[in-house]
Amino acid sequence: MFVAAAVRRATRLPSAHVPYRSFSASSARMSASSFVSTGKKIVAIGRNYSEHAKELNNAVPKEPIIFLKPTTSYLPSGGNMEIPRGVVAHYEVELGVVVAKRGRDIPESAAEGYVAGYALAVDMTARNLQEELKSKRLPWTVAKGFDTFTPIGSYIPKDQVSNPADLGLTLKVNGAVKQDGNTKDMIFSIPRLIHHISTIMTLEEGDLILTGTPSGVGPVVPGDKVECSLKDGSGKQLATLDFNVVQREGGYHYKPE
Fold it and tell me: Is 186 exposed, middle or buried (CB count within 10 Å of its CB: 0-12, 13-18, 19+)?
């Protein structure tokens, strides 16, 4: 009887957008800042910029498209992003939103209270593998989930970002600008994303939401150098992110059918 009661307590779902109060606000901020090591999931959004959807010949969605990436795909800035054998790897620069606290069924009006901060990120994609899987109507987790496939910048506290709906995202490959977009062009706003995701799965402290990429995605090859920046509406630089592209030795080998 005591075991059953304990299981019921452990598996009880959180009530709608009611924060857990076992930690102080300061400890929550400290935990959020270490989201790369403590977060449980990366929730990514596809096709959240209309021009990006069009460049890949995809329809503009009527509601957010969600997929998951493992936290083992994180790569700190300055590291080596490994391309598995046979893979055509594409870059996708994105604004990441770090979740502040646990919540479910979060109203858009309350969503800001669940944002701890932000991070500059790149969602790497094994594009040729993804296209094959999509053509077979199969899940494409593999195409997004390789180790090092989520290069990530430093944590940016929320109070350092005055308007997350007006941030410039830039990505360069070997010094040439490939992506130059702004979060004001998102189809679905950050509050809408937080609301929508939380109606499907509980968001937890340290989770990262990747909010989508602007147009200009393309391939990188071993030997390339990728540099990204995040700027506010006044042009002030908030974050940078860079990584080297290398060939992975061993491990997975994609062989198209």
Answer: buried
What is the model's pTM? 0.88
Residue 6 three-state SS: helix
- Beta-carbon count within 10 A of 243 CB: 24
Task: Tell me: pLDDT of 30 over 80.
Answer: no
The count of other CB atoms within 10 Å of the CB of residue 104 is 18
Average pLDDT over residues 214-231: 97
Output the CA–CA distances (angstroms, integers) from residue 158 to 99, 118, 128, 161, 206, in the order listed: 11, 7, 36, 6, 14
Mean model confidence pLDDT for the chain? 90
Distances (CA, A) of 93 to 109, 112, 161, 186: 27, 23, 18, 13
- CA separation, residue 237 to residues 16, 44, 83 (Å): 36, 24, 29
